[in-house]
Amino acid sequence: MTLVIPKIFRKFREKTGFSLIEALVVMAMVAIVATLAIPRLSSLRDDLALKGATKTLAADLQYARVASLRRQSRVVVSLTNNASSYQIFVDANDNASLDAGETVLKSVALPQAVTLSSVAFFGCATGPQFVRGQPSCLAGGGNGSLRLVSGRTNSFYKIKLSRSGRVVVCDKNSDC
């Protein structure tokens, strides 16, 4: 018994591989797509860094609140406008500044293109302070807030801190 291969399959069998022109056309198409995609990926990376920094800071505000409850003392989240880092520390002498001998609970550097902006905790120049789990510097029962801004994409996230200590992260580019 012999195997008979139809003519249509013999034709494909004789031609194997790609021609040089086909390979060059595919490489040119890949280069064009890569040229269009790379700037988008850079913007996406910056947006993800901003979102990650926002979630980290919101979690750290909750951490400071819990630390003040656990330690039964004043815990300060030291934030300043246009800063690229912040610290959380136990303020033993209640002066809202980090002094020698005070315990630093956490020191965080923000991603390269992300900065703090519009830090507004009325009555607290350095940022929110927690005493036994409650924010102690929100004058008049209002909310405190801050923004994290990406310098490259001009996007921002706003974080609000209520008088009860609740932390709310607003949608991107929204003041909620």
TrEMBL record:
Q: Which domain of life is it from?
A: Bacteria
Q: What is its main location?
A: membrane
Stored SUPFAM superfamilies: Pili subunits
Q: How does it sit in the membrane?
A: Single-pass membrane protein
Mention one GO biological process in which this protein takes part, according to its record. Answer: protein secretion by the type II secretion system
PROSITE patterns xref list: PROKAR_NTER_METHYL
One cellular component term (GO) for this entry is:
type II protein secretion system complex
Q: Sorted alphabetically, which keywords does the UniProt record give?
A: Cell inner membrane, Cell membrane, Membrane, Methylation, Transmembrane, Transmembrane helix
Residue ranges of the General secretion pathway GspH domain? 53-165
Localization per Swiss-Prot or TrEMBL? Cell inner membrane
Which family does this protein fall into? Answer: Belongs to the GSP H family.
Checking NCBIfam families in the record gives: IV_pilin_GFxxxE
Q: What is this protein called?
A: Type II secretion system protein H
- Lineage, top ranks: Bacteria, Pseudomonadati, Thermodesulfobacteriota, Thermodesulfobacteria, Thermodesulfobacteriales
